[in-house]
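Narrative summary of target 7.
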Amino acid sequence: MHILAKRWLPLAITSTAALALWVLAAAHGYAWQTIWLPAAVAGAAWPRDRTPTLGRCLHQLREGRQARRSDGSTRAQRPSRRAERSCALRRCDMRFASISALVVFVLASACSSSSAGEEPTHAVAPVHPTGPIPAADRTALRGIVAYSTRDGDVWVMNANGTGRRRITRSRPGFDFDPSLSPNGRSIVFRTSRGKYLRDPGGIGAEGIFVVNVRTRREHPVHPPRGGLFPSWSPDGTAIAFSTLQRDLDGESIHLVTPAGKQLRDLAEPSFSAVQEGLAWSPDSRRIAYSGHSGNGNWALWVMNRDGSGRRQLTFPTLVEPRGSGGDQIAAWSPDGTRLLYSSNQGQGNELWVINSDGSGAYRLTDWPGGDSAGTWLRSGEIVFAHFTGDEPLPKWYIVRPDGTRLRSLPWFAGAGDPLDWVQPR
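Modeled conformation, tokenized:
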């Protein structure tokens, strides 16, 4: 009995550990761990490029087996029962050690992947709808949505489509590109109304206004040369936008308070590059934006809130005519580890996701037409617009970052691109 216990107890423990590890790997989406685990329990070789330490361990085990198959003489001898039992116990011990080491490896991998905020280890299949797309569950959606219409006014509604209200009356102008304050009580937007230099640089700079959602009172926050792409910081203390520098030459990102005070240029004087479109990190410490050095090849960049630490993240291929392609920033993930953007490499816009350090980019959509990245909700879903042909207004959809659970938002019909959707705490 004692011998049987010594012989079979390690195998029972190994099998139990293997089953637990298989469940853990499957739950975390570690496909290669799940595939190779039965081979490891059977004593087969582990992928050397994945776990070289375990690979060396199993290689030594194979060498041991080969050594036990020969006693060094020209005549093979059958080992005694005692020797066979000893070898079996050693094999069980080695497998148990391998599984133990693997448990540590997978747990460490899961922790490091979670802390790094990288995309799932399994390949993300780009969204490519081939049939009807079911509507999202209205009752599960929360938050406030601000959007513009073809009439040029800014509206708000609840995420489930209720409580629609027109906030601005633009005529004879045009209001669009709204960005909600973190509490949803105010909106900053771009408008053709107001006093500003009539786009001396040809960049599309116009007025930038802030409106109170409840009272509908407005006030301008733009400098005399106007601005574009306004975005409210998550901490509520600043509004960022792109505009020409004082010399009307360089185009850079500026900050201003919601009251229109303390205008600050985040670039050095006579900035030789272009910064347009931007997205605040969830902690308001960093700004991601689209930029180029003058060649029209838009790429993703990230910098600190004070304009320091500029770093290029993507390096797209230049698309002709210059300025028509490249990468356009949209939003940060709720945990601040990834970025959502639209990319056009000459075949229409598609959605992409990339780590905030520039690694791990993957394509999220592969859909005929054009996809415009919208926002990344605190609840984890990505909102985007899909254009087909020459339609003036898009259809809106919501999807998970791994490409699953694509759902339509039919009650968003009539909403222009871009829109903003916040989920106040």
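Confidence is low (pLDDT under 50) at residues 1-11, 21-121.
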